[in-house]
Structure formats: structure tokens, C-alpha cells
Model the fold of this input.
Amino acid sequence: MNKNIQTFLACEADYEKAEVVLFGVPFDGTASFRPGTRFGPSAIRNESFGIETYSPYSDRDLVDYEIFDGGDLELPFGNTEKVLEMTQNYTEQILNDGKKFVMLGGEHLITLGAMRAVVKHYPDLHIIHLDAHTDLRTEYMGEALSHSTVMRQVWNLVGDGRIHQFGIRSGEKYEFDFAKEHTCLHKFDLTGFSEAVANLKGKPVYFSLDLDVLDPSIFCGTGTTEAGGITFKELLEAVMQLHQLNIVGCDINELSPHYDQSGSSTAVACKITREILLQMTK
Done:
């Protein structure tokens, strides 16, 4: 566990001292529309130096906390299950050492690799999932392992009533029908988010953020844009509530930086990463 040569802004603690571990999984092997999320983690690191370490939203500063950036996993091409195994193994090491983590994607399927490790440590785990898409398909073009099936795969691990979905505005009808019986799905926006936070206090929670939950007028640098998303302010207000919860792990995924030549999407990802890191520190 050595620090990456270039770390996310101020995430320069030694692994042994760190409370939170940041790492990247640059994988987009199942991207169903426009690929490119493999470039997300490095873009977030590179552009993080365009923001400040201090957050005026939480009145806290990254330099005051011990956060370790382990860089990106070196992944094989063309072997999805191997990528998930490597993600699981890395996550298990972090959890075994009593630390929390923030994982940068990459496509959303990487959540499954981390989740396989987290559920072993926290059998009563709940998941808060922000996304434009249901991700509850049983398969996509014959493949059970896909960014379109990731929450269905997670449901296979945790069962009914454990997945709390917000911002969902796209999916097949059978996915929405499945959600009515098996997940807590909130369509279109973050209505009910504060109530979910209140109900999950004291329980271990995993936070999974697909950045395409944002409206594409704010965040267009992603592979599958969906009109009608939430605003940055709404997302920030939700993130600021995470300090009330026992967040044991988190992922931030689906940034494809080259689809937004202005750099605005990457800047949004950087700021949200900073805010989440601060919410996860004591």
C-alpha cells in the first residue's frame, strides 16, 4: 500500500495512518453506449488541483485529515470477472485494516466487486444508490455482469429492502416492477432522501453515486446521458447529510471526461469527491 505518485488533492497520508483510503478502478469493459469511464479516476486526480482543499460548505479542510490515495488498480483487458475479483481483494484489505474507502470509477459494475467484500464485513449493510438508471436488469445482451445489471447483482447479495434508489428516471418496465417489490426506489429526484438517512442511522451504509444522476446540462461528461436529472445543489445537499450515517464505503463512477471538452463535468466530480471525503472523516 504505497501512495500514488500523483494523489487526489491533499490525500497524501501514509496508509498506516489513514482513516479513509481513496483508489481508482479504471474499467469500462461493459459500457453499453459510449465508453470512456476508464479515464475518470486519472482525470479527477489531475483536475483536483483546480479546487481548494477547504470546503466552505462543511467548513472543513482536507489537509486536516489523514487520507491515503493508493492510485488505480492495474486491470487486465477483457476479463470482467478478474476485474471484480481484484476490486474485491483490494477492498477486503482496506476493511480488514479497519479503514473506510472511496472508490473512483470507472463504470458502475465496479460497485459489485467492492460490495462482495463489504457484505462479508457488514451482513446488515444498506445501500444508498443515486443514479439516472435502475441498473436492475437481469442481463444486457446476454451478459449478467454489466453496468446495467449491477444493482440486480447487489440485490442478490443483500436481499429485499436494503437498496435505496434515488433520481431514477430510466430503465425497462420490468425493472421498475421489480423495484416495487424488492428495493426502495424513488423516481426522478431526491424526494425521501432525508427520511432514508434518518431511518438508516446506526446501520452500516454503502453510498454508490453514479454521476449521471445529475442533469446533463450540469454533467454531460458521461456515457449515457439522461435528461431531467437533479442539480448540483441538490446532490450537494444530499452528500452533506452523509455525516449522520455510518458510511463504510463509497464509489463515485461514470465520469467520461472526454465527452465534456469544457472540463466542467470533471470539475463537478472533483468537488463532489472532496465533499464525500470530508463527510467520511471523523
Observations:
- The first strand starts at residue 20 and ends at 25.
- The chain has eight helices and ten strands.
- Residues 80-96 form the longest helix (17 residues).
- The CA atoms of residues 204 and 246 lie 5 Å apart.
